[in-house]
Prior knowledge:
single chain, 350 residues, mainly alpha, Topoisomerase I, Chain A, domain 3, 12 helices, globular
Amino acid sequence: MPLATANEICRLYLLALLVGETVQGALIKGATVWEYLKAASTYLQAVGKRHESILIDPVTGKTYKPIADAIRDYEKWEGMPKKQSPLTKKMILNLLERTKDHPIDSKERAFADWCILGLHVAYRRIEWCNEWNPSNMEDFHRAKDIHKSIYQCLVEDFQLLGQDGIFLSEDAQLNYNPGLLSHVKVKFRFQKNGRNGEILTVAANVHQPIFCGARAAQRIKQRAKRLGIDPHQPASAYQSNPGSKRPSFFHRTLVKTILENTAKSTYKIDDLKKNNLSYTPHSLRIGAVVIMHCGGAKKHDIKFKLRYTSDAFMAYLRDVPATAINQICLINATDVESWDINLTLTDPIA
């Protein structure tokens, strides 16, 4: 068999590998593809079928160009970042509508409260949700300190304030008229950026109470009380079944599943991956960034309210309808050749 023909056969073998026709029936890394090809070439040489490598072009003496090009393109796409998708208000509304008849302490209703609050404070997963499904109160992720405290937020980390900002006792917080809440102070005992103990104020939303962070925090505290959670224990509790005697707690896999199901229902999509959508517990933090950015918040306001110490939040900006509409507004309002002093161009995140 001429080497040129062997090159083409090798190329066909390569194409099969690139679409996942492997022993495991799965896609593999570009570096692993090279190892498959080298192994095939070495085998043919070892059994005496060929003296030269089937990867080499007999004319140029280099790697056969179609093979090199295919792997280069494959590694290019392989290296593209898999961006996580943001939680949106539309998804929260969908979740609330689909689960309106569920028990108030169900995982879906409880999760909706964390989503609402998350869009205000940009929770990192570790700050409110366990990595694994905890089997007991000793099975939560611990902070690296001498006391080995539970890392995620506790019930006592929410302080609700009443009308005109009056301080409420623990019992009063549970029974206070939600329509009269002024705000909630959320404490972050541990943070990735080291600003441990930081407190963030979330104002009550009187215009869109369904998205009110203060009301969501009150429901979280009330739920914890009903489920027998002490103030110094994790707040992310829910009741897995109406008859359950012990509380359950949110963890990464459960949150990912609820988010994915909610996204499929909201956007009428069966295959999220095909539509380049990926949801994880971090989607709450991304959603908070996207909302503030689309609303025209200044860069320093996003950094302050969402607890960033750098411009790292810029990596979470997404191509969403609101940014497209904002661009049209700027184009319509701006003429770069006009001397009209009233026409100005501003950077919404400057």
